[in-house]
Specification:
The chain is an alpha+beta fold. It is built from one helix and two strands.
Length: 53
C-alpha cells in the first residue's frame, strides 16, 4: 500500500494534494496504522520550503 502526496507549484500558487491518511486516528483492525504518530510528512514538506500556513 502506498500513500503519496503531490505538490503543484505555479508562479502564484502552491497546491498540496495528499491522501489524508493522517496521525492519531483509531484503526484497531490495522495495527501498523492504529494511533500512528510520525513527523516525517511535515519534515519533508519543510525540506521543500513549505509550511502548513
Amino acid at each position: 500500500m502506498a500513500f503519496q502526496a503531490f505538490v503543484v507549484r505555479t508562479e502564484t500558487l502552491t497546491v498540496l494534494v495528499e491522501s489524508c491518511n493522517g496521525n492519531h486516528k483509531q484503526r484497531p483492525t490495522a495495527s501498523w496504522q492504529h494511533d500512528f504518530r510520525a513527523s516525517t510528512f511535515m519534515e519533508n514538506l519543510a525540506g521543500l520550503g513549505l509550511r502548513p500556513e
